[in-house]
Amino acid sequence: MGGRSICISPKLPYTPRLADPSPTITKFQCNVSISVNTVFFALYRDLVGESTLAVDLPVGATVADLVEELRGRGAPFDSLPTDPAVAVNQTYAMLDERLGTGDEVAFIPPVAGG
């Protein structure tokens, strides 16, 4: 019983201190999340009624997870396509790209021309 619950970050290895060489690791839900900034341009801005929006996601989330999170909010976000063109930090990105805290994800609408 004298153990402690500890939360281990998925990015940082845990090394016990000498004063506590073997802590008891119990199930402990870590609320580890990231916050990304979404930017909507032109048609998408008109569809969702926002030009920017902060979204919290779990650590390790991808662009696809962000799209799913937004579409899952229902109207008007469910109007977004399942595979939009996006840029992460001003570089075109694929849906499987992992996101980090502070990333800017821009939703780029299709362009028509002639």
Short description:
By secondary structure, the protein is α+β, with helices and mostly antiparallel strands. Helices cover 14% and strands 24% of the residues.
Average pLDDT number: 83
CATH-scheme architecture of the domain at 34-108: Roll
Using the CA coordinates, give the radius of gyration: 19 Å
Sequence of secondary-structure elements? EHEHEEE
Helix content: 10-25%
How many DSSP H or I helices?
Answer: 2
Main sheet specs: 5 strands, mixed
Uncertain residue ranges: 1-6, 8-14
The secondary-structure class comes to alpha+beta
Shape: globular
Widest sheet: strand ordering: 2-1-5-3-4
Secondary structure: number of strands: 5
- First and last CA, distance: 72 Å
CATH topology term of the domain at 34-108: Ubiquitin-like (UB roll)
CATH 4th-level superfamily of the domain at 34-108: Beta-grasp domain
Question: What proportion of the residues form beta strands (DSSP E)?
Answer: 15-25%
CATH class of the domain at 34-108: Alpha Beta
Give your account of this protein's structure.
- The protein is built from two helices and five strands, in the order E-H-E-H-E-E-E.
- With 114 residues, it is of the alpha+beta class.
- It has a five-stranded mixed sheet.
- Strand 3 and strand 4 form a beta hairpin.
- The chain is globular, with a radius of gyration of 19 Å.
- The model is unreliable at 1-6 and 8-14 (pLDDT under 50).
Can you give keywords for this protein?
single chain; Ubiquitin-like (UB roll); 114 residues; disordered N terminus; 5-stranded mixed sheet; 2 helices; alpha+beta; 5 strands
